[in-house]
From TrEMBL:
Composition bias type Low complexity, residue spans: 7-20
Source superkingdom: Bacteria
Protein's name according to its UniProt entry: ABC transporter permease subunit
Transmembrane region(s): 30-52, 90-110, 122-143, 321-342, 363-384, 420-439
PANTHER family noted in UniProt: BLL4140 PROTEIN, DIACETYLCHITOBIOSE UPTAKE SYSTEM PERMEASE PROTEIN DASB
InterPro entries, sorted: MetI-like (IPR000515), MetI-like_sf (IPR035906), UgpAE/MalFG_permease (IPR050809)
Organism lineage string: Bacteria, Bacillati, Actinomycetota, Actinomycetes, Streptosporangiales
UniProt organism field: Streptomonospora wellingtoniae
One Pfam match: BPD_transp_1
Length: 449
């Protein structure tokens, strides 16, 4: 006789009837659906319906009265503007996510090595608190061509003027009929040679009153010296009219601080600087003829910086603005991943004799690779949809050179009012974004499992 270890059978089973079902744990499914219904309706109205309607609208003509099938897609890939936008998007994808990710990694590592890490994080992350529209306006001003308004060119011109100062009279040029000829380097020289004991007068025009230094005196006639070459450089212009061309009049002013050179065999053997009244004296000359030259440095034009908003630099300039905005986002995510790295691995590498660079390259970066990939793919998704920075920063004259797919979609839909072609561009842009989104979602699921 065997013992029954399962206990007595239920009464229904003993009576020969069916066993009762076990009760379901938790609320019924319809109750969960009831609570999810508002969110599902919101997603349906604001996400699913626009996508489906865009696909539907892309199959119709511009007014939406005639079904054209895939003609809008065929027309989209025959337009030069679409290929320019697609080319710029490729540049954005190839450059912007990688640059921002690397910058975020560098900033995240720096925050662990500096004392004022909190202040540094606030400064780097602060642009994320500014709207893209405001960021575009800021960088539109930063990239102004005029160094007095544009910060970028102000910095460049300051450095340039320190290395190679602007000439004293960049707009000056000889009066017509004066035997002065331009040199290959940009200065001027007398056509006829001079010798010790000679005097010369060099009239110039095209000098603004703002370029004249304070304390400038009336031009004086040169005084001959048998041991040197004397001369006067002056502004041959009389205010209010009158005066004689090529001659020093009583009201005409000299040009001070001009560099004058005596040249022989291609080399400057004597130099002088004009005084407040425009006079100069070249001394220490031996007998024979010399070429009198006004150095090119007197007339060098001021350096006005780079044309940031021109067709050549417009896309790199906008990418730099994008870096300024998104570097803080990348830094915060990477810093979170960096704080989760086991310090034992880093210390073990240092104990084994690895340098800090080797620890960073062979230990830190590999352990951070999942976070770096998440940041990179996220930035790539945003780059594919970039619109506002390009729209605000790029002037109308070069907007075609900076065009991207999202901006092209907007311009076609609301500029030329072709809703069919604009919807086709929207669907094409969606197809480009979806693979990156699917890749990102799969990564998240693998990490959670």
């Amino acid at each position: 006789m065997t013992a029954d270890t399962d206990g007595p059978a239920p009464a229904a089973e003993r009576a020969g009837g069916p066993a009762p079902r076990r009760g379901r744990l938790g609320p019924p499914p319809w109750l969960a659906l009831f609570f999810l219904l508002p969110a599902l309706l919101f997603l349906g109205i604001y996400v699913v319906y626009p996508i489906l309607f865009s696909v539907y609208r892309s199959l119709w003509d511009a007014p939406g009265t005639e079904f054209v099938g895939l003609d809008n897609y065929a027309r989209m890939f025959t337009r030069a503007d679409t290929f320019i936008a697609l080319r710029n998007n490729v540049v954005w994808i190839a450059v912007a996510p990688a640059v921002v990710t690397v910058a975020g990694l560098v900033f995240a590592v720096l925050t662990e090595r500096i004392r004022w890490a909190t202040a540094f994080k606030i400064v780097v992350f602060m642009p994320m608190a500014i709207s893209f529209l405001a960021s575009g306006v800021i960088f539109r001003l930063v990239y102004e061509q005029d160094p007095d308004r544009g910060l970028a060119n102000a910095v460049i011109t300051t450095v340039q003027d320190t290395v190679a100062p602007t000439g004293a009279y960049p707009g000056a040029n000889p009066r017509e009929g004066v035997p002065l000829e331009e040199t290959p380097q940009g200065g001027y020289r007398l056509a006829e040679p001079v010798a010790p004991g000679d005097t010369v007068t060099i009239p110039l025009v095209g000098v603004n009153s703002d370029e004249l230094a304070s304390g400038t005196e009336h031009a004086a006639r040169p005084q001959a010296d048998p041991d040197g070459v004397a001369g006067t450089v002056w502004v041959d212009f009389t205010r209010g009219g009158g005066g004689r061309e090529g001659e020093i009049d009583a009201t005409e002013t000299g040009l001070p601080a001009l560099r004058v050179e005596a040249v022989r065999d291609g080399e400057a053997v004597a130099t002088a600087t004009t005084a407040e009244d425009g006079t100069f004296m070249l001394t220490g000359l031996e007998g024979g003829g010399y070429t009198l030259r006004l150095a090119a440095s007197n007339f060098s034009e001021p350096y006005n910086g780079l044309t940031w908003l021109g067709p050549t630099l417009i896309t790199p300039s906008i990418i730099a603005a994008y870096l300024w905005v998104w570097a803080g986002f990348a830094m915060v995510l990477i810093a979170a991943g960096l704080s989760a790295i086991p310090r034992e691995a880093l210390e073990a590498a240092r104990v084994d004799g690895a340098t800090e660079w080797q620890v960073f390259r062979r230990v830190t970066v590999p352990l951070l690779s999942p976070v770096l990939m998440v940041v990179f793919v996220t930035l790539m998704i945003y780059v594919l949809k970039i619109f506002d920075l390009v729209f605000v920063i790029a002037p109308g004259s070069v907007r075609a050179d900076a065009n991207v797919l999202a901006l092209e979609m907007w311009q076609v839909s609301f500029g030329i009012n072709d809703q069919g072609l604009g919807s086709a561009l929207a669907v094409f842009l969606l197809l480009l974004v979806v693979p990156a989104m699917v890749f990102q979602i799969r990564r998240f699921r693998r990490e959670d499992s």
